[in-house]
Amino acid sequence: MATMRKRGDKWRVEIYKNGIRKSKTCKTKAEATQWALEEEKKLELQEQGLQPETVLADIVERYLREITPTKRGIRHETLRLNKFARHPICNKFIGDVTRKDFELWIAEREKEVSGESIRRELSTIRNIFNVAVERWNYIEKNPMIGLVLPKGSEPRTQRYSDEEIERILYVSGYNDTLKTIRARSGAAMLFAIETAMRAGEICGLTWDNVNLDKRTAYLPMTKNGTSRTVPLTRNAVAILERLKKEIGNTGLCFQLDTRSLDAAFRKIKKMAMCEHLRFHDTRREALTRLAKKVDVMTLAKISGHKDIRILQNVYYAPNMEEVAELLD
């Protein structure tokens, strides 16, 4: 039970519970009452075995040690959370963090990055609080519940034109050799358009998981945490045959990692005057082409999408003039 006394123009409030005494001087009686309610709530939580007076930065650090290493996107998540851990929010006790704190944080971030980037960051941070509630017993409720997220960006509809593909292949040197990183990056782009595979999947593809006779590529671990087998077009097989002949058939098929592919592709598209394109746009191009040949369920199996809505809204971008011709 809290006791309050007015001293001059201020209010002195004191709480005593289970042998623990706390006090504070506040400007108003309302402020003193609110503080007492919050502190009594914390003491009740501690009685239940919760730990609301743990600094949020320490919890973020624990999450980085125990949870982040179990994820495929460890590098990006580590960078994201190290940046967040330096924000003043993380100096607060986790039990003192409120939804208002994150509303202010969103307002700050909106001056720096897109709404889509903020949504990704919030998804990671929300999971920290979920783990803090459900597994680590720091608090009893996620303070981010009810938080209004910023609007995400409109889904991209960018596709590759045949002319752009030719220009990129030409400047990469793909037509002459596959012995350079730049040329293999051109090959990776073309392979992506033929298979709808992601950049990381292409870079991680090994000869042990390729069957040229059956025209399949097996991916033991993908972005969504499951394996899948990708059917290969004749053009995709031809690219692999070239790689096999020119750089060998042991280890990685493309002899690229994601960083070298990203760096090389940025240079290539600039040289080809195609800076508006992203490597990931190949996935939309591939799936839109494949949609003309297979049904949507088969398409989802090829792409690895568990949510058909994402496949339709983000990656399928048909040319309606071509669709009109199909109706005749």
CATH-wise, what's the superfamily of the largest domain? Answer: Intergrase catalytic core
| Spans of at least 5 consecutive residues with low confidence | none
Order of helices and strands: EEEHHHHHHHHEEEHHHHHH
Shape: elongated
- Biggest sheet, in brief? 3 strands, antiparallel
- How helical, in percent, are the residues? 40-55%
What is the CATH architecture assignment of the largest domain? Orthogonal Bundle
Look up the CATH topology of the largest domain.
hpI Integrase, Chain A
What's the helix count?
Answer: 14
Oligomeric state of shown chains: single chain
Strand ordering within the main sheet: 1-2-3
Percentage of residues in DSSP E strands: 5-15%
**What is the straight-line distance between the termini?**
80 Å
Features:
single chain, 328 residues, mainly alpha, hpI Integrase, Chain A, 3-stranded antiparallel beta sheet, 14 helices, 51% helix, 9% strand, elongated
Describe the 3D structure:
This protein has a three-stranded antiparallel beta sheet, covered by helices on one side. A three-stranded antiparallel beta sheet has the order 4-5-6. It is mostly helical. The chain folds into three domains: 2-47; 56-134; 162-326, Orthogonal Bundle (hpI Integrase, Chain A), CATH 1.10.443.10. The radius of gyration is 27 Å and the shape is elongated. The relative contact order is 0.08. The model has no long low-confidence stretch (mean pLDDT 89). Strand 2 (10-17) and strand 3 (20-26) form a beta hairpin. Helix 2 packs antiparallel against helix 3 and helix 6 runs antiparallel to helix 7 (181-195). The protein has 14 helices and six strands.
